[in-house]
Structure formats: structure tokens, C-alpha cells
Write a structure and sequence with these properties.
Blueprint: H1 2-20, H2 25-44, H3 55-64, H4 70-114, H5 119-157, H6 160-173, H7 180-187, H8 191-197, H9 204-213, H10 223-234, H11 243-271, H12 293-328, E1 330-331, E2 334-335, H13 336-350, H14 355-363, H15 371-383, H16 401-410, H17 415-426, H18 432-442, H19 445-474
Antiparallel strand pairs: 1-2
């Protein structure tokens, strides 16, 4: 009995010391241990071919990780990457659309007619499956082929760990782990990969926060949606010479809003359902290395661009088939698509969206990459816009960004619709691949449901507030 009481006294004394030594004691202790270990290792360990940090690296780090210049440099680099992506993707995207939609699609239709293929099979395979694939390729391939190599070059150069270093303090203040900066950066490529990357976080509580909030990082499937909508509705409001810059700024604002929502949600979770003490970690900044351009191009194009594009096509093919079916199968006097859109239109307009967008996000749950082609097909199918396939889910003349804008505007889109779509693209449920990955990592239906439905709830709230303020000030 006396032994148990002495143990309790020791634990109570240790707990009181824990709060008396100050909140930075753990950081200082960890830093001193790593510093001593690094000094000893430098004296006794020699690694062949290893390049250590040089005074030149230190000079760069004093600039890119400084309190004054760190964040402006991060924003500038992100702006340059997005501007190059937006400006560089326009021409190849138009060329691909002209080839796949204006040339190959009519050829396939003529061939189907010549061999006597029945209309419904021709429509299902060519107007449904093929057009979904063609649009995904023409819209997704050019921006990904530019964005991924640029992102990989920054990673290869050694800049991304500096981004994590700059964001570490903000994540710790929000009750999360500083390593979440790395998983958030990974989520900008793919949210499923970002969720898996949270394994580097030791604390189960902080790892769960990182998993739930990773969806606020714009993944590769959502970048083209942001770029396309910003270029069509926001960039055109500026003079032609400034259109690309204005579009870039709009996309950057959405991306930064995602970071803000990550911090806010992390803080909310850490103060409510996921309370706990913030842990600490030591980040070793690697030396800067000259980017291996050709290897980077090969890696980013093969391992990222083509694999992501293949995944998008795998999901786009059945989605295109579903879109064609709901656009051509009638329930009474209306198609399934028309019936669903008409019933959801009022609810969507209440949030500054519309029924087409809501139905598109339901159909496009398998992959974010097919949201835009789904919206376009449904808009054409329901609106019956002349020149786009007789209103049966067909869109084979969209050979330019202006033509895409014409279709959306003919479907009743306004600037408010575009702005709220960009916001809803940021704040909505993860794709099916990410949802499955979240369940595999958490083994919890509860937390998978939270990670799935929390962004949707936030998306509707934000869109509602924007719509109300919009109507208030535009009245």
C-alpha cells in the first residue's frame, strides 16, 4: 500500500514539473539531443558521395525561411507555377480538343453509321464513353504536364522542406503537428497520397487531424477546374494582357483559402473532439541540389501525369456512360437527368450553385477530374443548346475555352455561379479513392464519415454566405 502511494506521489510530482518547466522545454531538449548527435556524427562518420550543407545553403535559407521574406517568396513561387500552368495549357488543350472532339468524334460516328450500329449503342459508346475520355484528356493532360514537372523540380531542388519549416509554427499554434505541412503539400498532388503520407506523424490525435483536413489541399483533379473557371469568368473581366495574371490570382486565393481552412479546422478539432498536447518534431533541412531536369520530366510525366490521367480515364469512362444514360432514358416526359436537375435546381440556387453542379458532383464522386466534363455534358443535355449534339449529353465542338464559356453561360451561369463553384470545388467531399484510403488508414467508419461530410457542410455554409452577401450588395 505504501509502495502504491509513493508511486502516486512520484507521478504527481512529475506531472507538476511537466507544467513548471515551460512549454518550450521539450523543444529545447529535443534540439540539444539532435545537435549533440549531429556534431558527434559529423566528426566520426563519412558517407561517400554525400553533399553536406554549405555556407551558400545557409545564405539561401536565411532568405527563404526568414520571417520577412519566407512567406512572400512562397506566394511568388506558387504564383509563377500557376501562371505558367494557365498560360501554357491553353494552346495544347485547344489542339487536343480539336483533334479528339472535332475530328475523331465525327469519324467514329460515321463509322458506326456505316456498319449499321444501332443508335443507342452508338450513343452509349461514342457520345457517352468516348466523349468523357476525350474531354478528360484534352482538359487534364496539358495543365498536369506543366504543373507536375514544375512541382517536382521544386521538390528535387530541396525547396519543399523549407515550406514545411515556414509553416511549422502556424501548425503548432493550430494544435496540429508541424509535419502536417508536408502532408498538406503532398495533398496538392493527390489527397489519397496526402492521407497516406500522414503516417510520418507519430501522434494518433494529430495524424487524425491531418487526415481530416487534407481534403482542403487542392488535388490535381481540382486544379484544372479552378484554372478553367477562373479563366472563363474572372480573367475575361480584365484587359487581354492581364487576363492570365488575374486568373492566376483568383486560383491562388482559392488555394490559400484551403490553407486557411486547414488551420481553422485543425484548431477547432484540437480544441473540441481531438483535444491533446501538441507534440514536437525536428526537421532537418536537406542541402540544395541542382535539379535533374530530364529525370524530373520523366518521373513527373510517367509516375504522376500519366498515372493520374489513366486513373481519371478509368473513372471517366463509366461516368460518361452513366451521363449518357441519364440524359437519354426517360421517366415520363423527362429524362432522368432533367428530372434530377429540375428537382435540385432550387436547392442549388439557394447556395449560388445550380442543379447541374450538384448532380455533377454526385456523378463525379469517383474522381474530381471528371467534374467539368460532367457539368458540360449535363448542361448540353438538359439545355438542348444548338450545335452540341442535339441535347443528348454530346459536346463535340468545344474546341476552345471561349466555346466552353458559351455553353456554361447558355446554361444560365453567372459570375456568382463560377465563384461558388470554385469555392465548392475546394470544400466538398473527397473522391472515392481518398475516402477508401481514409478508411484504410483510420479503420474507423466514424472518422471516415467526418472526413467525408465535414467539408461538404462547410462548402454549403460558405457558398450560402457568399450568395447572400452577393445578392445583398448587387441589389
Amino acid at each position: 500500500m505504501e509502495n502504491k502511494e509513493s508511486k502516486k506521489d512520484i507521478l504527481s510530482f512529475a506531472n507538476s514539473l511537466k507544467w513548471n518547466i515551460g512549454e518550450n522545454f521539450h523543444d529545447s531538449l529535443t534540439q540539444s539531443i539532435y545537435t549533440d548527435a549531429s556534431r558527434i556524427a559529423d566528426k566520426v562518420v563519412t558517407v561517400a558521395g554525400e553533399r553536406k550543407n554549405t555556407p551558400f545553403d545557409g545564405k539561401i535559407d536565411r532568405i527563404v525561411t526568414s520571417r520577412t521574406w519566407g512567406f512572400p517568396i512562397m506566394l511568388f513561387i506558387l504564383s509563377v507555377v500557376l501562371w505558367l500552368t494557365i498560360q501554357g495549357a491553353n494552346v495544347p488543350s485547344s489542339l487536343l480538343a480539336a483533334l479528339l472532339l472535332d475530328t475523331i468524334h465525327p469519324f467514329l460516328k460515321e463509322m458506326a453509321e456505316s456498319i449499321g450500329m444501332v443508335w443507342w449503342l452508338s450513343g452509349f459508346l461514342i457520345d457517352g464513353v468516348y466523349l468523357a475520355l476525350a474531354w478528360v484528356i484534352s482538359v487534364m493532360l496539358p495543365p498536369m504536364a506543366i504543373f507536375f514537372p514544375l512541382f517536382t523540380l521544386l521538390e528535387d531542388f530541396g525547396y519543399l522542406p523549407r515550406v514545411a519549416f515556414n509553416l511549422d509554427k502556424l501548425f503548432r499554434k493550430s494544435g496540429a503537428d508541424g509535419k502536417q505541412a508536408l502532408t498538406m503539400s503532398m495533398g496538392w498532388g493527390c489527397n489519397a497520397a496526402g492521407v497516406i503520407a500522414t503516417r510520418i506523424i507519430d501522434s494518433p490525435r494529430e495524424r487524425l487531424i491531418a487526415i481530416i483536413t487534407n481534403n482542403f489541399s487542392l488535388c490535381n483533379g481540382r486544379w484544372p477546374t479552378q484554372i478553367l473557371i477562373a479563366s472563363i469568368f474572372i480573367g475575361v473581366m480584365a484587359p487581354p494582357l492581364l487576363a492570365g495574371l488575374v486568373s492566376t490570382v483568383a486560383v491562388i486565393v482559392i488555394a490559400l483559402l484551403g490553407v486557411v481552412f486547414t488551420f481553422v479546422t485543425s484548431h477547432f478539432l484540437s480544441k473540441t473532439v481531438l483535444k491533446g498536447e501538441v507534440s514536437t518534431f525536428t526537421l532537418e533541412l536537406p542541402p540544395y541540389r541542382p535539379p535533374r531536369v530530364w529525370r524530373t520530366l520523366y518521373t513527373s510525366l510517367i509516375d504522376r501525369t500519366l498515372i493520374v490521367l489513366w486513373r481519371a480515364c478509368v473513372f471517366a469512362a463509366p461516368a460518361g456512360a452513366v451521363i449518357w444514360l441519364i440524359s437519354n432514358v426517360h421517366v415520363g416526359d423527362a429524362t432522368i437527368a432533367s428530372w434530377a436537375i429540375n428537382n435540385m435546381d432550387g436547392f442549388g440556387l439557394f447556395f449560388g450553385l445550380n442543379g447541374v453542379i450538384l448532380l455533377a458532383y454526385i456523378v463525379a464522386i469517383p474522381a474530381n477530374e471528371i467534374v467539368i466534363p460532367t457539368i458540360l455534358m449535363l448542361t448540353v443535355a438538359v439545355s438542348g443548346i444548338d450545335g452540341y449534339g442535339e441535347g443528348a449529353g454530346v459536346m463535340f465542338e468545344l474546341d476552345s475555352m471561349s466555346a466552353t464559356g458559351d455553353v456554361l453561360k447558355a446554361g444560365g451561369w453567372t459570375l456568382l455561379t463560377a465563384v461558388n463553384l470554385m469555392l465548392f470545388s475546394l470544400l466538398h467531399n473527397p473522391c472515392s479513392t481518398t475516402i477508401y484510403t481514409i478508411y484504410q488508414e483510420t479503420k474507423s467508419v466514424k472518422w471516415t464519415a467526418v472526413a467525408t461530410f465535414l467539408p461538404i457542410a462547410m462548402g454549403f455554409v460558405v457558398c450560402f454566405l457568399v450568395a447572400q452577401f452577393w445578392h445583398l450588395f448587387s441589389a
